[in-house]
Amino acid sequence: MTNQEIFDTLKATYGGAIGSFHEQGGSAYMKRTSSYADIVEYSQIAQICQYLRDEPTLEFDNLNCLSCDDNGDKTLSVIYHMESLKFKHHFAFKVTVPIDHPVVPTVTRVWASANWHEREGWDMIGIQFHGHPDLRRILLDDDWEGHPLRKDYKEPEFYRGMKVGY
Amino acid sequence: MSELFNRTMTTIAPAPVKIIPAERVEPNRIKTEEMILNVGPQHPSTHGVLRLEAVLDGELVIDVIPHLGYLHRCFEKHCEAMTYPQVIPYVDRMDYLAAMNSEHGYALAVERMMGIEVPEKVEFIRVLFAELQRIASHLVAVGTFGLDVGAFTPFLYCFRDREDILEMFEKTCGARLLYNYIWVGGLSHDLHPDVLKMCRDFVKKNRATHAEVNNLLTFNKIFVERTINIGILKPDVAINCGASGPMLRGSGVKWDLRRDDPYSIYDRFEFDIPVGTGKMGTVGDCFDRHWVRMLEWEQSLNIIEQILEQYPQDDKTDVQKAVPKRIKPAIGEIYSRTENPRGELGYYISSKDGINPARVKVRSPAFVNLSLLPIISRGYMMADLIIILGSIDIVLGEVDR
User: Fold this and answer.
1) Is residue A150 situated within a structural domain?
2) Ramachandran bin of A74, using left for φ above 0, alpha for ψ from -120 to 50, beta for the remaining angles
3) Contact by Cβ (8 Å): B396, B73
4) 3-class SS string, B195-254
5) Beta strands B343-351 and B359-363: pairing type?
6) Which one, A121, B79, B270, B368, has least CB within 10 Å?
7) Do B335 and A140 touch (CB under 8 A)?
8) How far is CA B44 from CA B90, B145, B396, in A?
9) CB distance B335–A81 less than 8 Å?
10) Tell me, which fold does domain B75-363 have in CATH?
11) Is residue A158 part of a domain?
12) What angle do CA B356, B362, B64 make, to 5 degrees?
């Protein structure tokens, strides 16, 4: 199935929870793998992912990547790229949340691979994945302040008495 | 002392083990107090700076908690201040054992964003170097896996042959480890005229090394006994947890991006995709992962031979012909992936129509593969944990980025 067809299937099943479809240009590869849909009702993400994984015509059994991004306009987003090893088709969707309440439901129960990706998202961008079994910082120290990949991040002058800047 | 021993024997019921330790635990075992053992961060068997917090019951591993970040440089933040070509040296420093492959993936991602077609000759050189680097990386993986088990000699054999590969790279681009060789749209230098001959000699010599390492290590009885039936990863678990590369194929899943989502000119070459079959023990055990690496090494040699046959020697195209003057992709996002020696290396690049990327996120194969360590090592012995970690083949530069 092409991205557009998968999007139509999803739209028919979940209706209002799914926003618009963003087709990516550049090259045929980019169009095939990276075109994404917006999810408006992000409380339903886990159900939508479950559907994508278990529906026999879709079977998205592999979550390739879960990336978090700061859009720079007081919103954060999470992008899910997935593929099916059986049908070799791709799909991606994006969730955008306000920076002052960055809560997104976890998908670790659907794909276990999301576990560390979500921890990294919390560590670097500061998105709280609701229901995550072990949401600790992963790359930075537990007592580090702030989330470095946010656009408004200012690095601390000192960390445990050591100078940070160089 | 004997009194204590008897009392323990009679009053304590069979150990209520938290996580199913499978068939390795005897039913009437004496439960001891749980102990936490820190392995690393400075320990040769962690292959870099990784700390494992192992919860032990006697010698039995109840749980493992990996602590990462000792090598974290946040190169993703640096990328936001760099132009697209300036990112390439950073990408090198991720997986320092397979820098060519990382560059290849990054260059492809940007080319796919801009719709650049590179000359055929460039594709040949890229694939040739990617496969040589894959062999170099597998040589280190196999050699250090031998070290983890206690075999020192194969490691030296592997490094001797890796030297030849590095020499070819050095002749061509001047660097031995971190190359900045594959550029967006081309290469930094043309292939050195000696390299093709060196490559032919290397293939011949390396086939002998392959057989030698098999004799010395793979079919050594001690090695086999140490690596079979431990760290078993079932195929459905592997897919759900996002394993890729030899880790996934070791579990018997035939999935290789070079064949299943071909890039560059991989669709022109014939090669097999080796999968784990439980050759000595169970499907998906440590031996299978090692064996898949050994077979992949052979397949890479086959690809190199085909490249040497088909290489357009009279083609005098400038390797920088397709390099754009100004790299500025249109607004858009891409997730582009290639097959690294360790698995699926993905780049998520978001462009907001500037000369530097708005966001670069790397899905590094070693990072995701390492997240499986707790799942596959519970219920085995402490000594097996080291072997299981070795069979995952992590590079901390890539895990921590």
Assistant:
1) no
2) left
3) no
4) HHHHHHHHHHHHHHHHHHHHHHHHCCHHHHHHHCCCCCCCHHHHHHCCCCCHHHHHCCCC
5) antiparallel
6) B270
7) no
8) 25, 11, 12
9) yes
10) Cytochrome-c3 Hydrogenase; chain B (1.10.645)
11) no
12) 150
User: Residue A47 belongs to a domain with what CATH number?
Assistant: 3.30.460.80
**Chain B: nearest CA to A141, how far in angstroms?**
8
pLDDT in tens, A99-156: 888 888 888 888 888 889 999 999 999 898 888 888 888 898 888 888 888 888 888 8
Residues whose CB is less than 8 angstroms from the CB of residue B208 and which lie 6 or more positions away in sequence, other chains included: none
Question: Which residues 18-77 of chain B have a CB within 8 Å of chain A?
Answer: 68-69, 72, 74, 76-77
Q: State pLDDT tens for residues B313-371.
A: 888 888 888 888 888 888 888 999 999 999 999 999 998 888 889 999 999 999 999 99
Q: What are phi and psi of B177, to 5 degrees?
A: -120, -50
| Residue A33 with chain B: CB contacts under 8 Å | 334-336
The secondary structure of residue B136, as a DSSP letter, is H
Query: Cα-Cα-Cα-Cα dihedral of B273, B279, B283, B287, to 10°?
Result: -90
Which of A147, A148, A118 shows the shortest CA–CA distance to A134?
A118
**What is the reported pTM?**
0.88
ipTM of the complex: 0.91
A135 part of a folded domain: yes
